[in-house]
Predict the structure.
Amino acid sequence: MRIPIRNCTDALRQSPSCRSLPAVKARPHPALRGARRLLVVVDPAAAAQPALEKAARLGRALRAAVELYTCDFREGLDGPGRGLAAARRGYVAAGEALLRGLAREYLKSGRAAVRYELGHPRVPRILAEVRRTRADLVIVDSHFHPGARRALFGPSDWPLIRDCPVPLLYAKPGRWHGAPRIAAAVDPRHPADRRARLDVEIVAQARALARALKGSLSVVHAWLPLEPAVAGPVALGLPGAAGGAVEQRLADAEAHAARAVTALSRGGGRPPAEVVLLRGAAVETLPGFAEVEGLDVIALGAVSRGRLYEALVGATAERLLERFACDVLVVKVRRGVRRRIPV
């Protein structure tokens, strides 16, 4: 299998055209084929509804039920009294009528489930709705700033990313291609995921999405050799003999990464996806790769451990998530996923 090596951002800048990715024609992976309930968090007042547009296509592809959900807060309506109770019922009825109208417009169905509730804070109520409906996927509009070409993640986004128990798709403006381009961003060198359980899940979910939508899949790993034996001599400007040793060490590390990512791309005996290695920091290389390739969705992982908030919501992760112009699928490890990737 061909494994292109992309050298940081220079190669991306020199590639004006997108390389075609192989189409995936097999049946959906069980991880997503079993998805029967999609929960769409809707802002009824928004001018555009990319989450609903994507949910409509996914619902048809997966033959899944789609529920529209809104949690709203109206100051002054949370007190006791019959008058306030009647006002709350009126707001809820009007909100559900608006959601039904959106369902008819985007889903072409008047029978889609809708739920509009008043309450605060928003994230715990969304998570409660995920548990109540047993949703398999949550789809949310991102606050995308077209001028800056970036998503703006607010205070309520990070707790939702951190605590949502199922995959979370952040939808941005723009429609998917007829055959969407999907990428799974993995990191087999991650010290917190020695068994590659998270990487296995990322690839499985991305592959399932590509198959359901009759799209294409690539598995990408951005890596930066930070070991002192590699970075030290180069930084100190040591002579050629040491430089040759460094180059050999770098080649060995690159080959090791290629083997690990290739094994991930073949997980479960599935046809291998295309493997791409990007040499450079993920925050610098992955957004450029997504733009050059014209990706529709990139799947990223959230480490479900005690250090989750620090691992995911740190400055680097925040900049990475916000820099993508394509949709972002946040994936976590499912229970029972314990496969070890051979390298």
